[in-house]
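TA notes, week 10

Several of you asked for a full example with nothing omitted. So below is the full record: structure tokens for the whole chain, then the designed sequence directly under it. When grading your own attempts, check the secondary structure regions first.
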């Protein structure tokens, strides 16, 4: 390093390059006990140039390390997640769902990927048949019901789903499972009923709890995680439903049909 060791460079760097030439000469000279003179001035200038270069290089190293650590953190949160959860049905029975969620959605640099495709499956409590639902992130699960042996699933458009599903108001869609297939039905078939959300909503927010609970959520945990945009896990009151419209309300506030509608 042109006759100067790391101690000199560190000493110069510690002064932030705000000191004058004379002070820098003294710093460099103190390291090697060099004589004062024109030769020292030249070496001091070299010392300053080298120190500035190392400072810039050091800053870049720090930035690279930060980006690498951010990438590692983001990658650690991009792993798919599989767990089971107990769902309390409106009739009081409990079914155990096997759930799977991928995290491959769009995200900002340094941030973990958002939710993407998912599925869940369970054994029908009456027939023992396997029931499976698969979807992309545009539909978020809200409530599972079984009426006279028929499985129903209430979902909410999520992410780009609000526009893809033509902005339903209230923002709910209903599917029934029959003969091994899911069929969409009007939510007006639920008019007069009250349905409590009973499935984990927003898996990204529940990820740490799922891991810390050995990848199984009790019905009490699920009910807490099922609130979604609601302040409390109150029942969706379909007695308030008149006619569901489409293409008119695409942005908040939404009509969630709850007693303390937060409007989000």
């Amino acid at each position: 390093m042109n006759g100067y060791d790391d101690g000199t460079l560190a000493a110069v760097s510690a002064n932030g390059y705000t000191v004058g030439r004379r002070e820098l000469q003294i710093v460099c000279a103190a390291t090697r006990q060099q004589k004062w003179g024109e030769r020292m001035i030249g070496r001091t200038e070299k010392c300053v140039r080298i120190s500035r270069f190392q400072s810039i290089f050091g800053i870049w190293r720090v930035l690279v390390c930060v980006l690498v650590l951010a990438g590692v953190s983001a990658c650690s949160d991009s792993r798919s997640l599989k767990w089971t959860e107990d769902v309390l049905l409106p009739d009081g029975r409990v079914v155990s769902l096997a759930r799977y969620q991928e995290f491959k959605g769009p995200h900002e640099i340094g941030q973990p990927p958002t939710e993407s495709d998912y599925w869940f499956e369970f054994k029908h409590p009456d027939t023992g048949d396997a029931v499976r639902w698969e979807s992309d992130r545009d539909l978020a699960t809200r409530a599972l019901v079984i009426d006279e042996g028929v499985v129903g699933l209430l979902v909410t458009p999520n992410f780009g789903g609000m526009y893809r599903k033509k902005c339903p108001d209230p923002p709910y869609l209903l599917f029934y499972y029959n003969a091994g297939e899911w069929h969409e039905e009007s939510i007006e078939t639920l008019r007069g009923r009250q349905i409590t959300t009973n499935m984990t909503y927003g898996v990204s927010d529940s990820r740490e709890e799922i891991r810390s609970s050995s990848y199984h959520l009790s019905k009490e945990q699920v009910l807490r995680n099922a609130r979604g945009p609601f302040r409390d896990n109150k029942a969706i009151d379909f007695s308030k439903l008149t006619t569901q419209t489409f293409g008119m309300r695409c942005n908040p506030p939404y009509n969630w049909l709850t007693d303390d509608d937060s409007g989000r």
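Helices lie at 6-14, 21-32, 38-76, 161-164, 203-212, 219-225. Use that as a sanity check on your answer.
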